């Protein structure tokens, strides 16, 4: 089975192959996940907020403070592709706090993510495997699209101070395999329809502003400005090696005297993002990347920096 979607996420419906219009403008086709994981008989999707703060090298963060869960308002079974509310999450979705198996934990003050994780664990499964798949999907998408993003990015004179907040929407099947449905470039942050979501949206924005330095206590800018918050000693990895560097050997690549002004700017930005990330966790770069050889030179360079920081402090590993 397949679904055809318009780019504005409307008109979603399961179609037979012979009814698909592959030439229809502003639309795309996806294979339908026919065995979705159900909670109390309801299908749902998972909305994950993601921020990209840098290209060349790439830095990507996932908001871990909360996850948006949206349930279809009608029970999935008996399945009928003509009844869209059984499998399409629309504007009038069923919120998590109205799903019997989840509402008790949520009412006690636990987040949507914690309520979901608890349900998964009670049913003998490990929710961390779900979030590991989510992180891997986010990394794969950004690394795949990075060359195209860099081409667009080169049109602008200023290439350092920017960020983008998006929402990745996922669905999982009965084997807890994660599938990416779409990436919303302009995610809804209005709680007008569901007032209880106000806290989620406010925290996503507050955490994002802290991460990227838009706040009254942190403003990123030039290297001379950032030096008020982070000095060379905080981005240098090995003081002994740097003290002995004369000709800027390979081992000296993170020493201030052997780094370009742009390299120092990047490391200062990375350091500031880390200490002000709040409930964001870094998805890329991350420590101990297995296939470092597949990365671009810039991404490999920054990944090695994070890996060395991780060796000294486990808090730098994500």
In round numbers, the mean pLDDT is 86
End-to-end C-alpha gap: 38 Å
Number of strands: 10
Low-confidence stretches: none
Main β-sheet, in a few words? 7 strands, antiparallel
What's the helix-strand series? EEEEEEEHHHEEHHHHHEH
Secondary structure class reads alpha+beta
Which strand-content bin applies to the residues?
Answer: 15-25%
Continuous helix count = 9
Q: State Rg.
A: 22 Å
The helicity comes to 25-40%
Shape: elongated
Key features?
318 residues; alpha+beta; 7-stranded antiparallel beta sheet; 3-stranded antiparallel beta sheet; 33% helix
Outline:
This protein is α+β, with helices and mostly antiparallel strands and 318 residues long.
Describe it:
The chain has 318 residues and is of the alpha+beta class. The protein has helices at residues 100-107, 112-122, 127-153, 198-212, 223-226, 232-235, 239-244, 261-275, 297-312; strands at residues 2-6, 13-15, 27-31, 44-54, 59-63, 68-71, 94-95, 164-172, 178-184, 280-284. Helix 1 (100-107) crosses helix 2 (112-122). The relative contact order is 0.13.
Give the arrangement of secondary structure elements.
Blueprint: E1 2-6, E2 13-15, E3 27-31, E4 44-54, E5 59-63, E6 68-71, E7 94-95, H1 100-107, H2 112-122, H3 127-153, E8 164-172, E9 178-184, H4 198-212, H5 223-226, H6 232-235, H7 239-244, H8 261-275, E10 280-284, H9 297-312
Antiparallel strand pairs: 1-2, 1-3, 4-5, 4-6, 4-8, 5-10, 6-7, 8-9
Helix pairs in contact: 1-2
